[in-house]
Amino acid sequence: MSEATERIQKWIGQIEESRAVEWERLPEIYLYMDQVLTYMNKQLCLYERDEGTNLLTSSMINNYVKDGVLPRPEQKKYSRDHLAILTVICMLKQVLSIQDISSLVKTLLLNASQNEMYDRFCEDQTTAMKEVCERIRSTSQQSEADLTRLAIELSIEANARRTAAERILSELAKNSEPRAEKEKK
After folding, report:
1. Above 90 in pLDDT, residue 185?
2. What is the pTM of this model?
């Protein structure tokens, strides 16, 4: 087994052992920006491309607040609501635009509470990662060429799913525009 394959196997093991922090286990106390960054980067480290590549910075958080994707902090302090939305943003921003993520979160919150939406998201994320890890584990028993083929397959699937998600969100947005105009009148 090559060193690369061993590192991949180690990563798979870490992913399989990890679980997104459930709503009830998110910090109840308010956190300042540096505490949010430390907490979030620790939670998301397994999803980084390489170790030490943080998925979240203070500039990103400030931009999410400025763009209305993330609610404004209360006296520069962030709550568990903020942490839940930041988790969703960080996991989806590689796939969807920030505007699509914002629309998606707002729509999901119309039909569920913040904690229900977050817990459902975490459950779906865990299921998807388990499925991918199973495919990687079985392929890594073969050859590096097979792993390369799996990487392209996963990339193609990711692109197809992103395209489908974007189309769905686009069509739903078009559908809600006439309703919003009727409500204004």
Report:
1. no
2. 0.85
